[in-house]
Amino acid sequence: MRFDTNKSFGYPVLRPNNDDYVEAAFEATIEPSEDYDGKTLCKFDYHLNIGVKEIKNAIQDQLAQIVITVFCPKTFYQFSLPTFEKSGSFEIDLAQMRGATVFSCEITVCCDVFQLNSKKIHPEFSELSPFELKHGHILAQSEPRQLNIEKSSFKSTVSLFDFSEGNEISPTEWTYSLEENHINILFGSALNDIWTNDLSNSNSQEIIANSILVPTLAAAISQLRSNGDDFAEKEWAKTIFQKLETSGLSIDSGIEPLRLAQRILKSPFKLFKNIGDR
User: Fold this and answer.
1) In the chain, ranges of CATH 2.60.40.10 domains
2) Cβ atoms of 113 and 132 closer than 8 Å
3) What's the whole-number mean pLDDT along residues 179-191?
4) Crossing angle for the helix pair 235-246 and 257-265, nearest 10 degrees?
5) Which of 101, 112, 188, 237 gives 149 a disulfide partner, CB atoms 3.0 to 4.6 angstroms apart?
6) Phi first, then psi: what are they for 186, rounded to 5°?
7) How many CB atoms lie within 10 A of CB 176?
8) How do residues 60-92 score in pLDDT, each as one tens digit?
9) Angstrom distance (rounded) from CA 182 to CA 167
10) Architecture of domain 26-153
């Protein structure tokens, strides 16, 4: 159903920018995770905050259900997830989606008859309560979120980088280059030994993630801000732009490059398991 804050259902519905309930809110967060199989499937994580105890209890008692819907207007692909879990994840097929894709969430009655009553219902409605609702009636709606879905947006961020030994670098130093389609990380011989022989060690992963990937990505973001036209056709630049757009951010946001790089990488340690999949 189309989201409309001004629509009257004839009974209270918990939704943003609406006063059917007093001092109560319904928020649904749906975000792409970094778990991507490299082919078509991408995992999305969701979490719901429900400000009305009676609606939360209805879900717990399986009298109402959460329904998450994904719709891509360009391909007409639609995915629907009915669930009783307020937090969780789901996978969608990226091959069937392209461009602007709408993610929405509703809570609906899933029993034959449900009696709706709450102290948080607005006084205009409370005089009429309890409300007798039937299967399929909407109890809550979140404001839909639109994401730009492109397959390359969900590639592991680590796939932006190439790693090799630099001949003219001190053994314990490293540098980077932005001139190729991947960001080239060049190691001195000692660091290259760690990279090639000791990557499975969690301490080595932590050092590389924090000391190399985050600051290099921050430097690349700084270059895109100041000299974006020079790098616009590079694959690493396109992927950064797409990841930012998917996360609702932009290269010109007021967030400093170092913090923006950490947001793009999300949890950099776990990304190393995808290094061999690019």
Assistant:
1) 26-153
2) yes
3) 87
4) 80
5) 101
6) -110, 120
7) 17
8) 999 999 999 998 877 888 899 999 999 999 988
9) 19
10) Sandwich (2.60)
